[in-house]
Structures are given as structure tokens and as C-alpha cells.
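Hi support team,

I submitted a single chain yesterday and got back a structure, but I'm not sure I'm reading the C-alpha cell output correctly. Could someone confirm the output below corresponds to the sequence I sent? I've pasted both exactly as they appear in my results page.

Thanks,
R.
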Amino acid sequence: MKEKIREILVDIRPEYDFAGDENFIESGMLDSFDVLTLVTDLEEKFGVKIDGGDILPENFGSIEAIENLIVKSDAKA
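Hi R., thanks for writing in. Yes, this is the structure output for that exact sequence:
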């Protein structure tokens, strides 16, 4: 799952590799428009529905945080 998430991130922002430990939001790697694009892509690729209340910066700061969000969203379905 982590590799698929990373591929989606690189498709959105190819200038970054998203392999490091920095927070994607705080470091400016993703902005609010990127997050909305990411939500749509994640929902499509993983067959989940991400709740609007879960679209928070802390859920998109790392691949692990995004993975946790997908698992949480899948459990709600």
C-alpha cells in the first residue's frame, strides 16, 4: 500500500520523491489543492470514501498517516 500511495503522490507532485521523513504539508510539498486531488485519487485507487471531517493536515503529513487514513476510511465503509 505504501508504494501505491507514494506513486500517487509523485503523480501529483513529480518534483518531490516523498521518501523522506519531512511532513509533506509543513514542508510545502503538498498544498490544499494537492490534498483535494490526493483524496480523489485515493478514493478511486483504494475504493474508499474519505470523510470530509478527516481531511485534516495531520492525515496527509506522511505516507504512514495517509495509509492510516485509508485503513480508517475502509473500516467505516
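A quick pointer for reading it: The helical segments are 2-12, 32-46, 63-76. Let us know if anything else looks off.

Best,
Support desk
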